[in-house]
Amino acid sequence: MTDTDQPRNLSQKPVIILVGPQMAENIGMVARAMANFGLSELRLVSPRGGWPKKGAHSAASGATHILKDAALYDTAEEAVADLQFVFATTARERGQMKRVYAPAEAALKTIERNTAGQRVGIMFGRERTGLENDEVALADAIITFPVDPDFSSLNLAQAVLLVGYEWYKNVTKEALPFDGEPQTPPANKEMVLSFFEYLESELEAANFYPPDKKPTMTRNMRDIFYRLEMTEQDVRTLRGAVRVLVETRRSRKSQIN
Amino acid sequence: MTDTDQPRNLSQKPVIILVGPQMAENIGMVARAMANFGLSELRLVSPRGGWPKKGAHSAASGATHILKDAALYDTAEEAVADLQFVFATTARERGQMKRVYAPAEAALKTIERNTAGQRVGIMFGRERTGLENDEVALADAIITFPVDPDFSSLNLAQAVLLVGYEWYKNVTKEALPFDGEPQTPPANKEMVLSFFEYLESELEAANFYPPDKKPTMTRNMRDIFYRLEMTEQDVRTLRGAVRVLVETRRSRKSQIN
C-alpha cells in the first residue's frame, strides 16, 4: 500500500464485545475474523463456562494473540463503561427508538468517531438468543445486517467478519470528510448512565411515571438522550438544569421546616 | 419496501462455482452463506471424494435446497461454458494482466451484466491451494479481498459470504429488515420554540442563569435540543418531564401558603 492508502489513526479501532458467548470455537473464529480485518481489541462478557475456554485457541489458529489480550467482564455495562459510542448488533426489531445502521454506514460512523479520538465498541450477543433488551438498551445505535429475510441467520464469526470487513475497507481509503464535531469529548457510558439514574430518580420522586409504565417510559426517554450522543458538556448542562429545577423545590421545603 | 426499492432482475443472479472443494462442511456452509444473501445457483467442479458428500447436508442446515439443486462438472471450463462474465477469486497476484476488483466493485459489475441479461459466475478455489493458473485463465477478471496482509486467509464460506453480501447489499440498495425511524413526525418550529420558551422561563425562575450569561447559555442549550431533531412525541415527553419536576415545587409551595 502506498502512503495515501495507509489507514489513518489505526491505533484507534473499534472494540469487539462478545456478550455471553457460548462456544469456544466461535470465540476463536471471531478472533480470526478480527485479524483478517486488522482488529485486535476483544472484550468477553461472561463467556459461558468461564475463560479461558478449551477449544478457542485452536479455532483461532494464528489469531491467538487476540485471545491472549482479550479482556474479561462480568456485565455488558462494565464492558462499555469507558466507551463513547456503542453499537448493538441485532437481527430483529426490538421495540426501541434507536437509530439503525447497516454495517457500511456503521463503519463510517465508527471511523468518524475514532478519528476524533473517541472509543467505539460493537456488541454481539449470544449464539442462540442474541443480546438481552437491557444490553441493547446500553447502546447508542443498532447495527443490523442486510440479509435475505427468508434466511437471515448469520453465525457469530460471520457477523463480526462483515462488520470488520466494512471497517477495514473504509478505513484504508482516502480521508473521509469531517463534520463539525462538538468541542468536548462524548460522555462515556458510566457518565451517561449516572445522569439517567439521577434524572429518573427525580422523575420518580415527582410521580412522573404512571403505575406499570415506568420501564417503557424510562427506556423511551433514555433512547431520546442516546440519539443526542451527548458530550461531557451536554451531560453537565442537562444535569445542571435538572438539579436547578428540582432543588429550588428542595430549598423552599427546607426553608419552611 | 416500495417498488423503487425492489431489487432489479433478481431472477438473474451470479452463479457460485466451487472448484475442487475438499470438505463437505465447507460446501454446506457455502450453501448457507449463499442463502443468507439471496443466491441460489451453485456449481461444483470435481468435489474431492465425489458428490453428494456426507456432512454437507447437515452443515447446510436450512439451505439444503441449494445443495439439492447444485450442478456437477468435471472441469472448470465446462462449468463456465454458458456464462458471459466470470470472476476468479484469488488471494495472491498471479502474474496475469486481468483487471482486479474488490468485492464491492465486482458486485456492481455483476449487477450491470445481470441487468443486461447476461450470466455471471464467480469461481472459488480449493481450501488449501486455491485455483490453478489454468482455471484463473478462464476468467474475465479477478476478485481479491481487502484483508489485512498480515492475516489474509479467509475460509471458503467466508469468501462466498463477502461476495454474496456485497451483491445483495447493492442489488437491494441496502433494504434493511427494519429501521428505527421515530413513529411521530418531527416537531415543527412553533412547537420547538414553545418548548424552549417554557423550559427557559422555568430555569430563569429557578435562578439557573448567572448574570450576563443567559444569552450564551440559552443558545447552547437550544443547540443541544436542535441536535436531537425532536419529534412531536419527544417534545411532549421532555415538556412533561420538566413540568413534573417543577410543579411538584409549585404544589408544595401552594400547600404551605
Automatic annotation (TrEMBL), chains A, B:
Domain tRNA/rRNA methyltransferase SpoU type residues, every copy: 15-165
SUPFAM superfamilies in the cross-refs: alpha/beta knot
Enzyme type, top EC level: transferase
Principal location listed in the UniProt entry: cytoplasm
GO molecular function: methyltransferase activity
Keywords from the UniProt entry: Cytoplasm, Methyltransferase, S-adenosyl-L-methionine, Transferase, tRNA processing
Gene Ontology biological-process entries: methylation
Cellular compartments annotated: Cytoplasm
Catalytic activity field: cytidine(32) in tRNA + S-adenosyl-L-methionine = 2'-O-methylcytidine(32) in tRNA + S-adenosyl-L-homocysteine + H(+); uridine(32) in tRNA + S-adenosyl-L-methionine = 2'-O-methyluridine(32) in tRNA + S-adenosyl-L-homocysteine + H(+)
Pfam families registered for this protein in UniProt: SpoU_methylase
Source organism, top-level taxon: Bacteria
EC number: 2.1.1.200
Family: Belongs to the class IV-like SAM-binding methyltransferase superfamily. RNA methyltransferase TrmH family.
Function statement: Catalyzes the formation of 2'O-methylated cytidine (Cm32) or 2'O-methylated uridine (Um32) at position 32 in tRNA.
Subunit: Homodimer.
Protein name: tRNA (cytidine/uridine-2'-O-)-methyltransferase TrmJ
